[in-house]
Amino acid sequence: MNTRVVFIGDSITDSGRFFDGEGLGTGYVRLIRDLCAARRPDLDFEWINRGVSGDAMWHLKSRWEKDAIQTRPDWLSISIGINDVWNQLDDREPKVSLEMYEDIYRELLDRAARAKLILMEPSLLGEDPASEGNQMLAPYVDCVRRLAGEYAAILVPIHAACLNYLKHRRSPALTVDGVHLAGPGNALFAAEWLRAVNLWD
What we know:
Elements lengths: L2 E7 L1 H4 L13 H12 L5 E7 L5 H13 L5 E5 L2 H9 L7 H13 L5 E5 L11 H19 L3 E3 L1 H11 L14 H14 L5
Parallel strand pairs: 1-2, 1-3, 3-4, 4-5
Helix pairs in contact: 2-8, 3-5, 4-6, 5-6
């Protein structure tokens, strides 16, 4: 019997899945599937991408039942938070304060008790660790880390891995625009995810 893995999040997870015949997109979700198939052909996984471009926490809440509960995941991987901060920087709607972000996140996790939870830290808002966006993002990252501990979830330390990368190099770039992933960014996401769930040596 296969293990169903559902990825839910924003455009970083979406990565063109609606234009892909397999529905996986061209980003880190596909790379995880491909690497896992190559490295662990003995394992039987079903991979489902439910990322939607532009999503903030409010959007995730509105589609949680359909995309996170009714898909009946064995593993549920969540990546959300970039737009919650980006919207504040660009004065876009909806705006989600840190308190609201944590309250909604808890509500969603409480409704997903059946699944093995995998929480991914929000990644980057610009490839300068000292940027305003990354300073604003830091407490959201801390929130995800705290929730992972409280809910006995697997934490994928994406933000920490991005900062470590940028400590050593700025080229090749992780992103194409400070947010959306370039090749190295997708590779970093996939490697950190596979390592966190013990599918990478």
